[in-house]
Amino acid sequence: MTQPKHTITIIGAGIAGPVLALTILSHPTLSKLYTPILFEKLPISSSTSPSLSRYTLAVGAAVALTSNALFPLYELGLREELDKISCETELIKIWRAGMKGVGKYLNSIVNPGWKADLGTNLRVVERKDLRGLLLSKIERLGGEVRWGRKLLEVKTVVGGKVMLTFEDGIEEGGDLVVGADGLWSKVRKCIVFANKDTEQKEDPESRWKAKPSGSDGFYGISEKFEVEGTESKPGDTHWILLDRGVASTWALPGGKQFWTISLPSTSTAERQPGRKWESETAKVYHGEVHLGGYNVEETKEILRNHEGVWHPVAGNFKNIFENTEQFSRTPIAARAWEAGDIGGGNCVVIGDASRVMMPSSGQGACFGIEDATIFAKHLLNHPPTMSKDGLVDFQACISKYANERAPRSARMTTQSYWTGVVGLGDRWWWRWVRDFATAWMPMSADPKAATEPTDPMGWLYDVRYKVEVENEEPGMSIKKAEAIPQQ
After folding, report:
1. How many Å apart are CA 247 and CA 265, to the nearest integer?
2. Where are the alpha helices (DSSP H) in 382-427?
3. What is this structure's pTM?
4. Is-contact 341 207, C-beta < 8 A?
5. With CB atoms 3.0 to 4.6 Å apart as the test, which of 10, 252, 280, 317 could cross-link to 17 if both were Cys?
């Protein structure tokens, strides 16, 4: 007896959600078993829409993709198109600078993230372009995105059915709900409040929320600079260590620069329920800044205070600011949720809904891509069971996924937190450790030239996740993915 095709409701069409949908639609077995439907709160899909610009700025504007994320995307047949819209980082130069004056060179990283099996270094891509690539392929495969559907509440009802309430007042049910809905995930909230683990030390409301890291992020994308006489090449990236904080610029196609400034927090973003902080903007320089709940005058003052920060290509950050149309300021949080809080019943979360990290890791989007790939793998190997009365249970798949992802998320989140603390240099001893280690740590060896390159971060970058049958028994065939109803 063959199981009917199940609908997988995916909340959020950022990056992790579309990767999951595309993985299912592209797989010869999963596409026969499941129908993924993406629900997105934004009203339209146009890459030029103000809503999408606000969204992409709020979550970082651009992303760095390392080998652990590039491999699954290449497996989906996206290599040629992805390489066209992204820029390969060939060199990272690290500098030390104050609020004024010329910076001091400290060190370099040559061919960062190079992996011979992929034949590329890490690559940087605008978030809207990556998202557009994923969604366009989903559309070509007949996938569905329902725009303008903002989720308000998730409830699990009798029998394991999941009910979703949207802002438009419509309620919908789902066999399996996947939350790719970010930091304030409504799907994760449902899971956390349903988790009856008596050993939990925090109450559900506290467990649901992320923990502030004590830092803020400023992001933007600057247009191309026409600078003569610079030693920088198109693929160069620059990190500038500040007295308090760190700035960076990452090369993008067409000479654009993705820039970031991470600073110790000086205030708290006001994001009370009912306040439309997501749409709050203010004019600044020749563009507008998305405030993220922060005070507009304080935000402008911080930008003005960092105008004089030296940059090897632009001259200073004032020139970068004046060459940017869209800015964003956002609080930086850090937390990896435990296995029992990222999956339960017929609900599960992926991407930033399952862990949120400081940007020092450069792994936020990469881990979301990992999540989508691994969850699809467990869908293939651990299909749902079905009772006589038609109730579907995805618990085996969800449990496998959550228990596999939670330890890796915790390790990466912890490492990125402490790297971020040292990098921000909020105390003089952290600045001393940061500057000394950066200047004297050997970084400039070229992994392309090494016969047998060793990577101390191999646990992170050398994984190659793919959707395939786990051969636990000799001779096991793909039929393991076929759901067999319980009788």
Report:
1. 15
2. 395-424
3. 0.91
4. yes
5. 10
| Token pair listed for 34 | 């499941």
Contact predicate 139/13, CB 8 Å: no
Q: Which residues pair with 246 in a beta bridge?
A: 241, 262
DSSP 77-137: T-HHHHHHHEEE--EEEEEE--SSS--EEEEEEESTT-BTTTTB--EEEEHHHHHHHHHHH
Distance CA 149, CA 400 (A): 30
| pLDDT tens profile 371-385 | 999 999 999 999 998
CA distance 384 to 400: 12
pLDDT, tens digit, for every residue of 320-368?
Answer: 999 999 889 888 889 999 999 999 989 999 999 999 998 877 899 999 9
Closest CA to 112 of 91, 128, 85, 139: 91
CA distance 247 to 95: 10
In angstroms, rounded to a whole number, what is the distance separating the alpha carbons of residues 370 and 282?
36
In the chain, the N- to C-terminal Cα span, in Å, equals: 10
Instruction: Label residues 364-382 b or e (16+ Cβ within 10 Å = b).
Output: bbbbbbbbbbbbbbbbbbb
Token pair for 210: 């992320």
Locate 273 and state its tokens: 């329920």
How is residue 157 written in tokens?
A: 């009802």
